[in-house]
């Protein structure tokens, strides 16, 4: 299947399809979820690979019950439904949650364990959501509630339009029956916890897709690509989605948004500052065809002096604009684009709309203004 055929509304069209299950002491949720996706979903979603996020005890149970060469229920499921060799799932796909010191967690029983689990789960989901040409299906039916919460929240932070979140539901008494992993093609009799015999074809498996808000565009690029704690990602995303004070720092040639400082080149800082001063003076958005070179050069020279440049160096820079009464459109467009690019790299894709320079109007008649309200801009001399 070509990547060009994939569409976010149809996750099954992606060439790489990942089922990521959060499990604890009930590895049955893996085969139950696979059964629904492969057999009951209106359009089958056959994962190309399965990954588990679990504790040390959960990993041991999953290896023994799902992956045993003779009796593993994952292998049985694939044999029963003609999927052998189509779904990659081995011991290397079982990821044991570790604490801050990279030690496997046997269970999540303390606040420190919980924080470590949150960081681990968030980073695994972040990594999988970066795989090209893939869709990610996250199941939160197993494991402690804390694990499911972190997985759902992490998918909200990093998930793409083609990614899904779900919870598999199994009818009573099969949900609490240790022998039940999925309904086999040939029904068989198993025994419930109270030793009551039941037929497997009486089981009903449902899958609830859980809607979630996708906040990925609010996560800074550096946090999507590098390791960060769960708390750091949440804090950065929240900062980018809320109005934040923007401070202009001439002596550092940088713009500080909240606690994040973004370095700009002198002419970029001067242009951003020029738009801020125009806005403070109540002037309308800057029309590219009327961009006064003299007004821009005035603030440009002030920025260079704040940086400690001598007058000869300043004159040399300003001489490059000699004879111009208007800034050309190419200069304006490139300067705005580079400023917005630096803001997005540091703050996330939403930075342009929240803290950057907005361009409106038809091509050739563009107008430029800061997205930041004037009461949220501060100059620090």
Secondary structure category:
alpha/beta
Largest sheet: 6 strands, mixed
The parts where pLDDT drops under 50 for at least 5 residues are none
Number of domain modules? 2
Overall spatial form: elongated
Percent of residues in beta strands? 15-25%
Kindly provide the radius of gyration, computed on alpha-carbon positions and rounded to a whole number of angstroms.
28 Å
Total beta-strand segments:
15
Identify the strand order in the major beta sheet.
3-2-1-4-5-8
Q: State the share of residues found in helices, binned by percent.
A: 25-40%
Number of helical stretches of at least 4 residues: 12
Mean pLDDT: 89
Q: Order of SSEs, N→C?
A: EHEHHEHEHEEEEHHEEEHEHHHHEEE
Structure description:
The chain is 38% helix and 17% strand. It folds into two domains: 3-236, no CATH class; 244-379, no CATH class. Strand 13 and strand 14 form a beta hairpin. The strands form four sheets. The protein has a six-stranded mixed β-sheet with strand order 3-2-1-4-5-8, with helices on both faces. It is of the alpha/beta class. It has twelve helices and 15 strands.
Q: What would a concise description of this structure say?
A:
With 381 residues, this protein is an alpha/beta fold. Helices cover 38% and strands 17% of the residues.
